Amino acid sequence: MKNDYNINLEKYSLDKFKKDLEESKLIPSRKILKKDISNRFRVFKDNDIINLQDLVNVLKTPKKANPGVPP
Predict the structure, then answer these.
(1) How does 6-16 read in b/e, with b if 16+ C-beta sit within 10 Å?
(2) Model confidence over 34-60: pLDDT tens digits?
(3) DSSP codes, 24-71
(4) Which of 24, 28, 46, 48 has most Cβ atoms within 10 angstroms of its Cβ?
């Protein structure tokens, strides 16, 4: 039996993720995600991050997420 419970992160575009975040009603501790959302997502695109899998890969290690900043 195929496991269809997980999202294929490569097929979930950042544009869709941004739209979903903008349209979502977030709990207070998550509302920061909407702050300056257009600029944040522009930075992702400028760094060739086009889907959620790319974002996960970049955020896995502090070194990748903050180039030039010592761990």
Answers:
(1) eeeeeeeebee
(2) 999 999 999 999 999 999 999 999 888
(3) S---GGGGGGGTTHHHHHHHHHHTT--BHHHHHHHHTSHHHHSTTS--
(4) 24
Q: What is the distance between the terminal CA atoms of the chain, rounded to a whole angstrom?
A: 43
Would you call 2 helix, strand, or coil by DSSP? coil
Predicted confidence at residue 3, as pLDDT, reads: 65
State residue 16's pLDDT score.
96
Q: Output the six-digit token pair for 69.
A: 């900043």
Q: Which residues contact 69 (CB under 8 A, 6 or more apart)?
A: 62
> CB under 8 Å to 65, separation ≥6 — which residues?
58, 59
